[in-house]
Amino acid sequence: MKAKRRKEQMFHEYFKEWVNLYKVGAIRSITLQKYYVVEQKLQELAPNLKLKELDRYSYQQLLNDYALTHEKQTTMDFHHHLKGAILDAVDEGVLTQNPTRKIIIKGKAPRPKKAKFLNQFEVQALLKELNLTEEINWDWFILLVVKTGLRFSEALALTPLDFDFSKQKIDINKTWNYKKTTGSFQPTKNESSNRKIQIDWQLAMQFSQLIKAKEPDKPIFVKSRVFNSTINNRLGVLCTRANIPIITVHSLRHTHASLLLFAGVSIASVANRLGHSSMTTTQETYLHIIQELENQDNDKIIRHLSMLM
């Protein structure tokens, strides 16, 4: 009877109940918000689609409708959010077949991509434009992210207590929820994001002076509500002055990783430094760089072997 009653339920209602049952309290609030957005979009696109009517045809039509206004990757993300609930409906016997099987992901033409990272010479040009005053400002924030590869929310959450200047390390153990009006500390993205990052002696000396009078358990960069656009706008000004591609603060993280990879640092070390849950994430994100390095290695191998008699 329960399965029969479920079949008459609207798909968006079932998805909402599924999110409340399996996701609330189990995932970070920022991730949970994505499920809520999907639920709203589902209700908008298919307000009258019943669970019993969900088959490959109706599901493909749903994805096609979504893809009209979204890029292919965004459509893929939308599909993955829905798929978990659908597979559970199959397991429960509410659906007799998996409607997501052999689905086709479409999407509108992607927008021109901004530069994902800077090369070493561009980074040096950017750093020359920084206005590193005696007081903490956003230029210091930019320098820190360039040299550590921290996520935006991780850098915002840093307090004086997180710095160990004797060992030249920063302890990453929390993030700052900047999307809320008041702002607050929250856990890191995942367990592997809790890490200690080695910093160079120059950065250690600079920050030891900058934060010595700061409250030990208060964020060093946050004075009022912070917007991602504030730092990106400042970064855009600096990039323009330096005559280099305009990038975002998240691209500074990619820049940090790419510089390390080109310097010969192992993928495992880069993954640990970035707080990736596995090396696979690092390999997939920086595949183009890794392939370029492999080509360089192949040239070195051939040159070395050709010298053997």
Automatic annotation (TrEMBL):
Pfam families: Phage_integrase. Signal peptide: none annotated. Residues 113-303 form the Tyr recombinase domain. It comes from the Bacteria. Keywords: DNA recombination, DNA-binding. Coiled coil: none annotated. PROSITE patterns: TYR_RECOMBINASE (PS51898). PANTHER family: PHAGE INTEGRASE-RELATED (PTHR30349), PROPHAGE INTEGRASE INTD-RELATED (PTHR30349:SF64). Belongs to the 'phage' integrase family. This is Site-specific integrase.
